[in-house]
Amino acid sequence: MYLRNAWYVAAWDHELADTPIARTILGEAVVLFRNHGQPAALADSCPHRRLPLSLGCVSGEGLRCGYHGMLFGADGRCVEIPGQDVIPPNAHVRTYPVAERWGLIWIWMGDAQQADPAKFIDVPHFDDPAWAVNRGPAMEVACHYQLMTDNLLDPSHVSYVHASSLGSMDTVGIPVETEVGLDRVIVTRWIKGHTLAPFFAKRVRFTGPADRLQHYEVRMPAQAVIKDIVAPAGSGAPEGRLHEAVFLIDSYNFVTPIDDDTCRYYWFQVRNYAADDPAESQALTEDFIAAFNEDLIVLSAVHAGLKAQPSKLDLATDLGSNQARRMLARMIKAERGEG
User: Fold this and answer.
1) What's the pLDDT band for 170 if we cut at 50, 70, 90?
2) Are 39 and 105 in contact (CB under 8 A)?
């Protein structure tokens, strides 16, 4: 089940150039292209012989089918049929609202009248010159999208799945706090007097133990903000006092369902250090790719395992993800008019 009246990431902005690209989103075939520089999205199916329009080309005022040359505008209407003057009234395809923001192309898969720009996620430091942005490639994952959002609400897995990168064993068993909002679930914990994991130890601007915040937040239907605050132990970070050497990094994660067995994962980070250092941006991206690949191995195996034999066992660490699943299920039912 999918929540359709929501913004999903369809592509990075640089992916849309001179040729159309095909995407499957929420089980629907979509073609993306640029029309006079602006992103556009249509159902990826010519109404004549159902050739995917993504096999055509961008031409003049729209997208030309690669079979008989029918030309469709960004509004989905056929504006030209080679060899005939009359255009049948049913020569049109579905359009999807799209927008370009944060270096990403977003698509609204539900009722176009409800496509609300106010529902875009905010990224406070994206254009802040004192902060830097790094990003990596979209990653296709062989699992149901809610397994990804489960993972993005679960700090406890970091000690085990990312033992050589983001995690360390001295965080095992530290309890979390769970907060439920109108459209999001937040799981947090402070780890005090912490021996930093390798990922952080080589980047912070201080030595010795640290106090670290793990803030894991999933916003419906499938967007996650993970924030790390890493400060010298005892410097007051848990009480809101940020040391001059504090390490801040916010990770923005967007999960787009392809179908019930696969999803596409887009992500970028903003950080408060080395703002003018492209080498650090590249190193950070490479380290995140390595860490995320650790997740992908586990999640694809979990997906296959649950399909073969569903689990009826919950742990205390599942509270946040279970709350998020219930929230999303209620939203989907309401969207369908089922309660």
Assistant:
1) confident
2) yes
CB 282 within 8 A of CB 132: no
Least confident window among 166-170, 247-251, 258-262:
166-170
Per-position DSSP letters for 310-322, written without gaps between them? ------GGGHHHH
- Pick left, alpha or beta for residue 272 (phi over 0 → left; psi -120 to 50 → alpha; otherwise beta): alpha
Give pLDDT tens digits for 4-13. 999 999 999 9
The topology (CATH level 3) of 126-335 is: Naphthalene 1,2-dioxygenase Alpha Subunit; Chain A, domain 1 (3.90.380)
Distance from the Cα of residue 121 to its chain's centroid: 11
Q: Is the pTM of this model over 0.90?
A: yes
Cis peptide before 137 (omega within 30 of 0): no
The model's pLDDT over 11-35, given as tens digits with 9 standing for 90+, comes to 999 999 889 999 999 999 999 999 9
Sequence-distant (≥ 6) Cβ neighbours of residue 82 within 8 angstroms: 68, 69, 70
